[in-house]
Fold this sequence. Notes:
With 105 residues, the protein is mainly α. The chain is built from five helices and two strands, in the order ααβαααβ. The chain has a domain at 38-105: DNA polymerase, domain 1 (Orthogonal Bundle), CATH 1.10.150.320.
Amino acid sequence: MKLQLILLTLTASLFLSTPVLADTSAERLSDQETTEMVQLYVNINSASAEKMADLLSGIGFAKAQAIVAYREANGAFLSVDDLVLVPGIGAATLAKNRSVLRLAD
Length: 105
């Protein structure tokens, strides 16, 4: 009985003196949630194709290159809505990205 009490006391003291580490796996944010919290912006008049492909939803590298090519051939976009003038970019893609698109930094 006395031995059990000693063991219980030792176990309790070890438990109470050991820092508890939180399980961060459930607390980690997904890339999308982090992006939403940080709220990155993409300047379609100056961003590289790589940056647009990385940060815009539904825009791969080929479409991002088309945006850059359109911009180089036609000059700066005057409105975010002008993005639909780029072949392969439709209203749905514009709508998904509208909140992060900018014309200037």
